Amino acid sequence: MKTDNRPRAAMSWSSGKDSSMALYKILESEKFNVVTLLTTVNIDYERVSMHGVREELLQMQADACDLPMLKVKIPKESTNEVYEEAMQKSIDELKRQKVEYMIFGDIFLQDVRDYRMKMMKGTGIEPVFPLWGENTSKLAREIIDAGIRARISTLDPRKISTDLGGTDFNYEFLSKLPEDVDPCGENGEFHSFVYNAPFFRQPINIRTGESVMRDGFYFTDLVPA
After folding, report:
1. Where are the domains of the chain?
2. Does domain 8-224 have CATH number 3.40.50.620?
3. Do 189 and 159 contact (CB within 8 A), yes or no?
């Protein structure tokens, strides 16, 4: 078996389009050996935090990427201290796997980037931001043109219409966004689930389930078809 001498990296995986695009760019660059996905999961709901995606679908994504999944498990009433403790355990596991870099899909929120840098400081794992500073109008189109297919799983009804819940992230979706909404939803206007990407071994068949309001957000349940 051929040895891969590239530095080992973990992908901070949200299950959505931005982390998918970040991973796509990293894989295209061939600079890193991506060895695992890292995702925060709510253990009470068994879903990806904020995105509301079923843990079952998350595992299907990992299988499609042919990568293992490391889960940061937190309760629904998690404090920042509880989250950081759970994250530290995951970082310790990544260090045991000789991971040197962590890839993030953040685009322009400086406070989020600063927090990532703080969490990684002193761990021996260096953060990488392949999408940082990109124009989100251009990036949204690049995501679609790259063949990344995603469906809207969560949205903020104060920012965009609930009619867009469960629809695909495509040019039609972009055309329906109000002018003050970021095309990539970087300000938390919406989140998505990727069901196909250029690096997937096969697409994930899903159907759109029921939608509910919870904690001020509109969640659309996506179900394995």
Report:
1. 8-224
2. yes
3. yes
